[in-house]
Write a structure and sequence with these properties.
The chain is built from six helices and 16 strands. The protein is an alpha/beta fold and about 260 residues long. The chain has a single domain, classed as Spore Coat Polysaccharide Biosynthesis Protein SpsA, Chain A, CATH 3.90.550.10. The two termini are about 20 Å apart.
Amino acid sequence: MALRADPGDINETMLWLASLPCCGDMQTVILCGGTGVRAMPSTLEVPKPLLLVGDRPVLAHVMEIYADQGFTDFVLAAGYKAELVWKFAQSLPSSWHVEVVDTGENTNTGGRVMKVRERLGDEFFLTYSDGLADIDLHHLLDFHRAHGGAATVTTVSLPSPYGTFDVDGKGRASGFREKPKLHDHLINAGFFVMDSRVFDRWGGEDLEREVLPSLADAGDLFAYRHEGFWKSMDTQKDAQELTALCERGRGPWVRFTGT
């Protein structure tokens, strides 16, 4: 079954549906609606999810992380240049189930999730369109189901943008590490699992500044610590670095070869 909409009619309804779901009811919501200010001027022409890593949009790489592990039911929460996300979706495998929803150009991350809420089942994945990791999604899902909370966020150690010195009490440098991972500082790597209970505690329009703190205050947010590869694509420089990582094939975020 395939439903198509004229790109000129883009609004907050379903824009595109390709085939029936083949992997049950576990959906993956991907936030792809921001303007990508930090990646300008590249994002003046295309939205950040469609910036190339290698020869394909970063969004394609993100979706393949899920599809390679058997999760092929996607909701793309678009906004900025949503018609281009719609066109991209038409090139995806026909065996995937994909909805593109225009959630508004100025909607915040938490608001985008709320605008696709009625399309979601009792449990769903949520992620950004610009973060790549060799994450085991089945382990993540098992962790989420075991702790009993409403939400799980994947965390990674903060990668320092600078080299760090070890200094003794007299000011003598005893060591230097170039851009180490700061293991005492965990950051949001995306790759969430949530269930419908989160909407009872949905604290506002901003996922990071309002929703996650609200869930944490309620004791309903748990952290899954990922120790493997992770990198976000915030700037054009990040895109170039990720492209360099996959010049000889698929990048280090590829852990599975498909199901």
